[in-house]
Hints:
Blueprint: E1 7-10, E2 14-21, E3 31-37, E4 45-49, H1 61-64, E5 75-83, E6 88-96, H2 116-136, E7 149-150, E8 160-161, H3 180-183, H4 195-211, H5 221-238, H6 245-254, H7 265-272, E9 292-294, E10 297-299, H8 302-311, H9 313-321, H10 324-333, H11 336-346, H12 355-361
Antiparallel strand pairs: 1-2, 2-3, 3-4, 4-6, 5-6, 7-8, 9-10
Amino acid sequence: MAKSPTRVSLRDRYEISVDEPLPAYDNLPGMAFKAQHVRDSNRDIIALICDPKLPVRFEMISDLSEIDVPYLMQLQDWGVVDWPPEGRRCPVLIYDRPAGDRIMTSLDEEFEPMREEEIIENFVAPAYQVLREFRDLDIAHRAIRPSNLYRGGAEGGRFIIGDCISSPPAMAQSFVYEPIESCMANPAGRGIGISSDDMYSLGVTILTLLRGHSPCKGMSDEEVLEAKLSKGSYGALTQSSRVSLTMMEALRGLLNDDHDERWTVDDIGMWVNGRRGSPVQQSMESRASRSFSFMNIDHFTCRELAHTMVNNWSRSINIIRDGTLDTWLRRALGDDAKVNAFNDAKNVSEVDDEDDNLIARC
């Protein structure tokens, strides 16, 4: 039997060591391996082998080549190689190796909380420069989280944001680091996203660095989502922990569940440069005067109820057709816009009046 090769060549420019994994630089499902430039052995690079069953964000590569910011892990090359461990061809990304260690090897771990000044100087300020470039190119990173951040050198230094193209956008993001609407989507189909999605992830990452662990530690994905739906993201993630007015201002702005009101890249830039204001109280979704009981759960907002209906699809048609949902909207919620929208959703021809369509519209 032929012996498997220990090195794989990418376009005769790079040699990738099959038997030398570098797990400290994995961005799962992408796995890192030692790499060497054929003509320049002094270049410190890694190869990120991508899952061949998932689409790589190749459409972003040309945009990334235009970004010249030292706080983003630099993509040097890419291609497709015959990868022996998989027994098939796999996409590969060649990156400069970050100088320092990963901030968190796992989102489940705990570490010494960071000082506010350190967070602003070493993370928020460089992240602002990176996200400003992404915003100007009309693209979104979609993978901002502490486990995808690296220190800039052996003595600490400003953080470097890691890979964002080795798998579908936000597929590897924890529920905690994604806005509510993204949490409710299939992880593989969360979409390319917009700048405000990155701003939300930035806010959760700031909170993680402040506390020394990810928010909602020990909670399941469903519990995290339910907490965000009932309390709003800021309330669910901070859980009444003490936060200074300076950080509270940024966190309330970044964790706003209305992406139109969420802080923008320019807002965080002004905050980093010293502009301070009063923390704005996040506007919450309208709460009904009395709950709507469905599947033995009391719901006070439309969003909570909609989520339960999605998870109990076949039973949702009953509360739509028997009029109980309509009555609750009119009498307990008192939101004319929602009442009118609900009536419009039900007002269709008999041809289109099929259960699944009706539930989806409502």
